[in-house]
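Continuing the series of single-chain predictions for the mutant panel. This is the parent chain; the variants come on the following pages.
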Amino acid sequence: MKTTNYRLQTEIEHLSPTSQKEWFKNYLKEVLESDKPYYVKSDYIALSFLELDNKIDYLTNEIKTLTTLKKKLQQAKTLGLEIAAETLKEYGIDKMEGTAISSLTIAPPKTKTKESIRIKDPSKVMELGYVSFNVDEKAVKEALHHKEMFAELDPYVDVSYEEEQIPARLKINKKRNVSNPTDTVEILDVPTEQEAA
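Parent structure:
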């Protein structure tokens, strides 16, 4: 991304609720009082703000790209941990100790339950005081865990549970004080798919 950094733009970028706004105001006055033609002043002010728009758009796109990459890496890591746990299990290994890390262990498979609520009669639930702008579902969920509140809400809501199976995963137990974990070297020279072809 190529941008032009105007001095006015830099002054704008440094503005904050706690900054010295007078400094910016005085510089803007200098621009307005300069002997440059009015259209040059106008362009300078406008282009300074437009360059900020360019930076904001660029950062917005970068954040989207990084968010997508982060999600992809998290999915890849999860899948990799599951495959590693499965592979170690095939070899009968449930724990491996290391020097850079304390140990590798296999976290057992577990079931994760997700609670979802369907409000049957929103107006009645809101009359009971569970209101944000609409029904306050968070408050309803909390109330359903108390007997006395459950009884008053029960006729107006349905509660369902969804179970998600979480497969066993490899767990990396880090050492508390690792002096230099970058000393780890590649111990196997396994060719990649591209190198093998």
